[in-house]
Amino acid sequence: MRIVIIDDSGLRATVLEQGLRDAGYDDIHIVPPRGAFVARLERMAPDVVLMDLGSPSRDTLEEMLIVSRALARPIAMFVDQSDEAMIGAAIDAGVSAYVVDGLRKERVKPVLELAVRRFNAFAKMQAELNEARTALSERKIIDRAKSILMNQRNLSEQDAYALLRSGAMNQGKKIVDVAQALITASDLLGGGI
Amino acid sequence: MTTTVKIAFLPLNDAAVLVAARDMGFAEAEGLDLELVRTTSWATLRDRLVFGQVHAAQMLAPLAIAVTLGLSQQPAALAAPYKLNVNGNMLVMATDFAQALDQSVAARLADPLGTAHDFAAAIGLWRRKPIIGVVHRFSSHSMMLRYWLASAGIDPDRDVVLRVLPPSLTVEALRAGEIDGFIAGEPWGSAAVEEGLAETVAIGERIWQRGIEKILAFREAWLEDNAETVDRLLRALARAAVWCDNPANHSALAALLANPRYVDQPAELIGRALSGQIVARSGEAPIAHPDFMLFAREATFFPWRSQALWIYSQLVRWKMVEHSPDNAAKAGAVFRPDIFRRALAESDVAMPGASMKLEGAVDLPLAVGSRRGELTLGPDRFFDGRVFDPEKIDEFLAGFGAPR
């Protein structure tokens, strides 16, 4: 069964492709949704097209499926359209699948289920990455606030942190927010570091 | 108690009423918390609505009808009790392509019929078919472009290539040479002109003076089950629309829309369409088109059934749907003036006495029967002078000559 993944995020496409290969599918192609991708797709004659739900090229693809002679076969989106839970899961995961050959509908379901899992895994990875990035920048903010306190109030690093922490506790705020407020105030007063 | 309503939209000027309703507090005043969900493609917006992940959507009027008729993926009964705007589209073409047309952009815009014929004559000069971007197969843009092309004998399915792409990708596609021009809602036409990539060839308002654009679409079942929420939402939107129409608020509105969460384009560019000051060629003085985009006046928001049927007539004309009494009835019923009347019964919105009218018959501002307040309809002519009588669809279609 030939599967085409339309995606311009290299990483997501790789995650998806790997999953499909692990599941025993081997005729897999990745096509970025740019330029004449529709013509390329037409030549490949895929059984299933997997696409990121948020991709702006979805409109182009749908139009092509309507007018293309080579691909003018029944289209089933989200495979089994009576399966509401599956559709919901696919939308949540951000995957939309176009079954180009309507006759093989049943065979496509495991592909889509797998794709949903992989899309979710990718989203989780992305979220963790963002979290790590945020954590890093939060630490920088706290460090900067600490050094302001250390310089201006002559505190040790430990005491500076304790001061931020008690400030946060008293105000019912996150330490990073208190630290940010301190930096802003310090900048306004021209006290910077 | 505050009710949350999730509404999907695309980054376009015609999301204005939704944005104003949220950010200017009109929704809040009705106890609503609007959650505006930005999407990039109409396909995604449609799926989010059809599969119940949002409660409502800013939708292309023809798309709502197409989904109801089962023409665009999963069929679903959609209902449109409110129009978000009329007009607001612009057709632009790459600078070298526009060479074949009248060099005075003002003359070009003023005479769409002449421009269509100039364009038809030029098709033979170019070595290949012009590729024109449209935002969706089932868009008012596509309907208007086809209407305009056909007026000069151009067969839109044979003589040109219509390429579908979402509005926010049009400028890039033009830059990459993938299309020769496009018709889209603002600010995308202006963005292409501003970059010197294109010139304005026609504006929607000169093709149909009161051309239907975006509607607010619901799943019919949800609309029926949540009558009270729908009523509150429509009241909030109607007030927001009046605010949007007021020239005094245009710069504030442009600033709201410029937010990266909404249109994410410079406020100055967005403001042109709102204030009807159209820069048709980069560096030239703006041309005034005060009716370029309407949100409230002349009961813009009223969902005339005759307008749904005009769209249906065009779907039939271009062989996108089979003509049958059943299909016509289904298409007409997508627009819900009954819900509009119920929601705004106690408001000061002027309420038309009828739910259908002749489309394209008003030359000069016309006072019409209204249950409350005074209602004046603006000129709504088609540029070719045709009049659409919703009771005589067959006759109207026959007027376009024999099908291909």
Automatic annotation (TrEMBL), chain A:
At the top level of its lineage, which domain of life is listed? Bacteria
Which keywords does this chain's UniProt record carry? Phosphoprotein
Boundaries of every ANTAR domain copy: 122-183
In the record, 4-aspartylphosphate modifications are located at 52
Identify the InterPro entries for this entry. ANTAR, CheY-like_superfamily, Sig_transdc_resp-reg_antiterm, Sig_transdc_resp-reg_receiver, WH-like_DNA-bd_sf
Q: Which Gene3D superfamilies match?
A: 3.40.50.2300, Winged helix-like DNA-binding domain superfamily/Winged helix DNA-binding domain (1.10.10.10)
Residues in Response regulatory domain copies: 2-116
Q: Does the keyword Methyltransferase apply?
A: no
Instruction: Please indicate if the UniProt record lists Phosphoprotein as a keyword.
Output: yes
Matching entries from PROSITE patterns are given as: ANTAR, RESPONSE_REGULATORY
Q: What name is this protein filed under?
A: Two-component system response regulator
Automatic annotation (TrEMBL), chain B:
UniProt key word Transport: yes
Record key words, sorted: Cell inner membrane, Cell membrane, Membrane, Transport
Q: Where does the record place it? A: Endomembrane system
**UniProt cross-references to SUPFAM superfamilies, sorted A to Z:** Periplasmic binding protein-like II (SSF53850)
The stretch of residues making up the signal peptide is none
Q: Which CDD domains match?
A: PBP2_NrtA_CpmA_like
Q: Does the keyword Transport apply?
A: yes
What protein name applies here? Nitrate transporter
Species of origin: Sphingomonas bisphenolicum
